[in-house]
Design brief:
With 92 residues, the protein is mainly alpha-helical. The protein has 4 helices and no strands.
Amino acid sequence: MAGKVKLTLSVRGEIARRAKSRLALEGRSLSELVEEFLSLYDELGFLDELCRDLNLEERFYTSVEVETDRPGGPGAEKIVREIRDERSERLS
């Protein structure tokens, strides 16, 4: 396991205060949060490359966009199944 590296960061005071307060309630440290973010940031590059290789759209969708664009009504289940099947065929 690689050793830890000490970093010096500059962020707005209010952001740091609110983050530390919330993290304290969760029993976590700011260092843990920064490390988690940096790991995710690194993984995003991998996912972007994977999307390009698989010819998939490289776009982040918020949960609101997913729910808004989701088909509704009596035939929604059939439409969703068709979309999934089409996606599955493209990936094969």
